[in-house]
Amino acid sequence: MRPSERAPDILRPVTLETGVNRYAEGSCLVSFGHTKVLVTASVEESVPPFLRGRGQGWVTAEYGMLPRATHTRGRREAAQGKQSGRTQEIQRLIGRSMRAVVDMKALGERQISLDCDVIQADGGTRTAAITGAWVALKLAANYLREEGLLTVDPILDQVAAVSCGVFSGTPVLDLDYEEDSNAEADSNFVLTGKGDIVEIQATGEKRGFSQAEFEALFSLARKGIGELCELQRQATGG
Amino acid sequence: MRPSERAPDILRPVTLETGVNRYAEGSCLVSFGHTKVLVTASVEESVPPFLRGRGQGWVTAEYGMLPRATHTRGRREAAQGKQSGRTQEIQRLIGRSMRAVVDMKALGERQISLDCDVIQADGGTRTAAITGAWVALKLAANYLREEGLLTVDPILDQVAAVSCGVFSGTPVLDLDYEEDSNAEADSNFVLTGKGDIVEIQATGEKRGFSQAEFEALFSLARKGIGELCELQRQATGG
Amino acid sequence: MRPSERAPDILRPVTLETGVNRYAEGSCLVSFGHTKVLVTASVEESVPPFLRGRGQGWVTAEYGMLPRATHTRGRREAAQGKQSGRTQEIQRLIGRSMRAVVDMKALGERQISLDCDVIQADGGTRTAAITGAWVALKLAANYLREEGLLTVDPILDQVAAVSCGVFSGTPVLDLDYEEDSNAEADSNFVLTGKGDIVEIQATGEKRGFSQAEFEALFSLARKGIGELCELQRQATGG
Amino acid sequence: MRPSERAPDILRPVTLETGVNRYAEGSCLVSFGHTKVLVTASVEESVPPFLRGRGQGWVTAEYGMLPRATHTRGRREAAQGKQSGRTQEIQRLIGRSMRAVVDMKALGERQISLDCDVIQADGGTRTAAITGAWVALKLAANYLREEGLLTVDPILDQVAAVSCGVFSGTPVLDLDYEEDSNAEADSNFVLTGKGDIVEIQATGEKRGFSQAEFEALFSLARKGIGELCELQRQATGG
Amino acid sequence: MRPSERAPDILRPVTLETGVNRYAEGSCLVSFGHTKVLVTASVEESVPPFLRGRGQGWVTAEYGMLPRATHTRGRREAAQGKQSGRTQEIQRLIGRSMRAVVDMKALGERQISLDCDVIQADGGTRTAAITGAWVALKLAANYLREEGLLTVDPILDQVAAVSCGVFSGTPVLDLDYEEDSNAEADSNFVLTGKGDIVEIQATGEKRGFSQAEFEALFSLARKGIGELCELQRQATGG
Amino acid sequence: MRPSERAPDILRPVTLETGVNRYAEGSCLVSFGHTKVLVTASVEESVPPFLRGRGQGWVTAEYGMLPRATHTRGRREAAQGKQSGRTQEIQRLIGRSMRAVVDMKALGERQISLDCDVIQADGGTRTAAITGAWVALKLAANYLREEGLLTVDPILDQVAAVSCGVFSGTPVLDLDYEEDSNAEADSNFVLTGKGDIVEIQATGEKRGFSQAEFEALFSLARKGIGELCELQRQATGG
């Protein structure tokens, strides 16, 4: 039995609330159960130096966690003077995941920055962030088209993510914090709307794990991401 | 006429929503119009080194702004590797303001940290943060008493804050961003529930300003802070 | 009785020695009793990026304290790798105070940097710094006119500052360190030569304080700043 | 045809030279073709603060690249004042991979630090580092047993790693730099000697990729890691 | 002819003014012509961690330059967030020079920190700093003896320093900035009162230079340091 | 008797292995006994900002030490976020030494960066680095001539370095770590192929030392550097 009493293949309640920031070109407050991430998409009419003059755009992401997003207060990264390795790893993952579904030529020489700030954390913050970031990104692209700045939609497909793990010997979908802290294996899957692989990260936490276990996790992820993509379509009117 | 069409002595709509974080000992989402600040109060059972063994507590504050809290995206302080002078100035102000109404002996050897994160900014973020921080602080003190960790309330009085300024030659209460950007004088008042002065900061933005103007700002602040204190009492069941 | 045996409305002996640096376009060693601050004004023929091409100038300030300026040695900020929040707060205040009396158009596209380094500290370093910085600034403007680089004086008025506080229940002018450490309320006033308000910062240190006390502090400040302005005129031959 | 003219399932020539540092308790210079990583294992008789007094040990890793390890000179991280996100991601991966095969109780309250410095880079530096780090780690454990500091071997199994990718539409084993720069999908597999999964990281570089492609990569990795484990056994006399 | 019209073996006017800081246990304002360095000696009743419990003391130094000490304003190291390589090199040299003449056992478990801040620079700041630092150090040792904290003088000998260089083909003593900028060879000598070598640093600036030139510089340094030692004795009443 | 049983005027076995990096324009692995430094010379077709447009080149150096180059593991500078004062001092010395024998006009507007990374340290790392850096620099210059990018050799002379010290009262050549840790005086000499002085650094470690001792050290250095220059010529085919 999972601590949350969910069946192994059941997601936590997921909500994708849009329009939560009055300035951002796209925004989404995503909840996976008690995990809440606020995502804003900001359009800037310039690209990083390494891309200037190439007629293409860029999409990047930053991730942060409010100090009391967690059970006990963590130190504020701005006060410490640097982002942790974990933070950098996560924001690199979010950026790569978004770029996998964007046509950079179609975007033109502009950058979309996705800021993912964790308001409350109960496991799965990076997968919630990816799922919500796509919504904010899509809304920003819609905004650019409505403003006449783009004629073609640069967003080629959806992208969403979920974690899966082996908990008490059983493969389960969408780990919460209590499960995550005790899982024997932990994995994050990022798939497109068509089901292609964008990113897989799988780690044996206390021991190695078997290929059969891995395949069970992958199946759960496919199911969960299918449901997340449906919610994304509803949120973006797609 | 103010851009917001408010009369000179009228606050923006203010809300103080409590219980917005499931882990923090106290929390408050404070809105002054479109300005929204999420405040959490975290109790830690230790004090900073300079106070150890003195039988007294400490209250401190940190302040941050999400990158897209503002009209155009600002740089993330954690990514830049340092907090700006403005950020440090504000968090020092919030901490001083809270400490002015806390009996540190009554609090015992523990620290309460107030994290004030601006979700959306439309002027007056520091005064909203102070007003909301007092609510979170009070709720954390209530929690300590309910848990039997404290028998006496260490919170001696309320404290709330508001900005005032001279806009188009007229003293007005509670500046929003458009007013703040164009004010001839800008001031922040922090007063206790009894009306004592905790902090006054007044600045001539484009020119010096007169003592008569200053006194008009002070009167407006007294009116506004009286109203904010009433809302604080409602929010904390006081 | 004040520890210094001064009457409540009496400044410490104040000196403003000019021409103390052979390279700077303006310089002043300011003493308020045992507090000594060396100020240099450096003219640079360029402005910060945000002002380029606008046909106007800029005035900025930096503040530092030598490690043994104080009773016990403090850590060197350069060795620690960052400026404290207090340092940044003070240098921002000095810069704002100077800019309030400068006609930036008249200054032209050049910057004047005021470096305020505390050689010895006995309370009131920020107000001494402001008072001396104006002298160095004025001398640098005189230099620019003598060199024919400016035809109009960009310095519109004087600006000077003093601290006041409530010590043992009595409002007093120009706190030294011993008074400052024990004051119930502490305030800094920055006024122009004409008496307009440039900046007021007032803080209740151990308790809130009353409006009547505030007004007494303001009156003392007016008297003190009047005397400081007279000394500034003598120092600059005005 | 691969640029290196290797068949799709063929590793580059791999060497594991031990005893290359006269001070370290274990050391290995690992080469995967032109990629060369120097690994040292350093035993310290203390553990990080979070583990003190728990009767268990710790294994950690750091990774660096000499500025001219690559085709064009990169900036020295020590001179830049921080490690890149990529560096931190890699050193966290190496540390996790080693810890998956160590019995921390058997190791006792001591730490083994694995320093992986890339002397020359031609793709696959992280997988070479993991493969060589296990050799250095094993030698350090042997040293502790020879010195009588340990009676039981804390190393529970081997661990090795290889990259695979889809290059010109074909799944291939052990990408060199030229292949890596042009791969459609890139993956790193870390497996134990018994074949269990320690870590999988798979990324679609320009597009998502299919489950069938992923499975082909996994098969290639199993073959390659089997060969690497045989070389590890030879290098450590196992 | 030297720009300063001095003969090759003549020092600039040197003054060593003591008692210039009311808090420091020893202090000296040293001038070598227009070069002015303020040195304070601070006694702290503790030693760095690597010396704790060994019954011996430590002497260390820090060096800084005010931004407008030079012809054109330099950036403030505290604002830049780090000390330059040059600064670190100089403060390490000053510390080593002082330690060469101190009996650390006789000093007891306390540290003397020498802060050397350049008020105005016209060449030779490091040699002026060393010469003045010895005076401040000696005065601090005298203070410790007067207070009864030490019974034996821990200062074993004097130490002073001077620069020499080859300017327009001629070896000259005590380079000022104009000479230093154009010297073919530049050297700093640190000698004890007895004439022993504490440190020699000699550098060919545009070309290598000969042993004969080096010997001429060394002779000049001996003469100059003899004169500096006499001034040190006068300043410290020795 | 020296710990190494060498006669006072005998170098450790020295090797200069070239072509050790497949990407660098010049490279050398230099060994002085157990001290091993890997040097690469990287040519970049641009110069630092302060030299742009002057028609001349630049040569610079960076120095680092792998964490386990030493008997006990040191902290990684990249992880600590800054280079130590010792590191900066050494890399500035290496750069100055190289620049003393390069005709910057002949080099043209390009920069050669010498990265000196200590693989294993047993005393004398900076002198080994200088000796090896010249070899890498010469090879890079040869490369530029072979590629037709230069017609004239910009390398005017050789430069090499060795340490000498007073150990147990005897002047000895080329200190190893055990000698260096116990030397009464320590010195580094950098001389050109013609025997001119590029740099001398001599330090009394526990006491001052005499001019006679200094002259003995200088004689030993001349002998040792003569032998090193012969090895450099062999390594570069000169």
TrEMBL record, chains A, B, C, D, E, F:
Keyword tRNA-binding: yes
E.C. code: 2.7.7.56
Boundaries of every Exoribonuclease phosphorolytic domain copy: 11-140, 157-224
Annotated function: Phosphorolytic 3'-5' exoribonuclease that plays an important role in tRNA 3'-end maturation. Removes nucleotide residues following the 3'-CCA terminus of tRNAs; can also add nucleotides to the ends of RNA molecules by using nucleoside diphosphates as substrates, but this may not be physiologically important. Probably plays a role in initiation of 16S rRNA degradation (leading to ribosome degradation) during starvation.
Cited InterPro entries: ExoRNase_PH_dom1, ExoRNase_PH_dom2, ExoRNase_PH_dom2_sf, PNPase/RNase_PH_dom_sf, Ribosomal_Su5_D2-typ_SF, RNase_PH, RNase_PH_bac-type, RNase_PH_CS
Official protein name in the record: Ribonuclease PH
CDD domains, alphabetized: RNase_PH_bact (cd11362)
Organism: Phenylobacterium deserti
Residues that coordinate or bind phosphate: 86, 124-126
Subunit structure: Homohexameric ring arranged as a trimer of dimers.
Keywords from the named record: Nucleotidyltransferase, RNA-binding, rRNA processing, Transferase, tRNA processing, tRNA-binding
Swiss-Prot/TrEMBL catalytic activity: tRNA(n+1) + phosphate = tRNA(n) + a ribonucleoside 5'-diphosphate
Superkingdom of the organism of origin: Bacteria
